[in-house]
Amino acid sequence: MLVHGGFVDGSGWQGVYDHLTADGYRVAVVQNPTLSLAGDVAATRQVLDGLDGPAVLVGHSYGGVVVTEAGAHPNVAALAYIAAFAPDEGESVSTLIADPPPGAPVPPILPPQDGFLFLDRDRFAASFAADVPEKTAAFMADSQVPWGVEALEGAVSEPAWRTKPSWYLVATDDRMIPPPAQRAMSDRAKAVVTETPGSHAVYVSRPAVVAAVIAQAAQGAGGQA
């Protein structure tokens, strides 16, 4: 089950979906509305309720917060984080990005408008999708999904990575979530870590690498989840 992050929708997973389905996996994509963490967790659990077997719950970026909270669902066998936030109890995206280290890239998030956030269109490609084809990155910038401030501030209650095995893909060229932060979160979660060159949109630019990590999680969880 693939869960997208902020500013985008589930269509960005198509390349990963194609690789996984070609290898025989049953794949579901969650179209979480990104208005609030509670709403996104509810949307994810609704899809989980409809499964007839165990699943690897995969989150990109803010989607990592969603899978961390929703992952306690009994149908979840493992978690996979793709350049994602992996919060601990009481943490949110807002708290995790509150104090960036000196020299770390700062995402070009514009001031909230009516409770929603967008990335600066002109800086979107460089920050979010530097290794994505120019036309695709431009489309991603122009088709941004409003990200609710309430989602940004949603705190995790019981992190699923404490009880479920986890895998993590670090994108070493990420300018949205700094790679050192990714490594720190993956280490805390005791995740099996893979690193690859790639922007924050590594799930778009390197779908085969992402699919391979998800397949490792499925195999590590005991089969084709």
Automatic annotation (TrEMBL):
Residues 2-213 form the AB hydrolase-1 domain. Coiled coil: none annotated. The keyword Hydrolase applies. Transmembrane segments: none annotated. The keyword Lipid metabolism does not apply. GO terms for molecular function: trans-permethrin hydrolase activity. Its EC number is 3.1.1.88. InterPro entries: AB_hydrolase_1, AB_hydrolase_fold, Sec-Metab_Biosynth_Hydrolase. It holds the Pfam family Abhydrolase_6. SUPFAM superfamilies: alpha/beta-Hydrolases. Keywords: Hydrolase. PANTHER family: AB HYDROLASE-1 DOMAIN-CONTAINING PROTEIN-RELATED, ESTERASE_LIPASE_THIOESTERASE DOMAIN-CONTAINING PROTEIN. This is Pyrethroid hydrolase. It comes from Streptomyces lavendulae subsp. lavendulae.
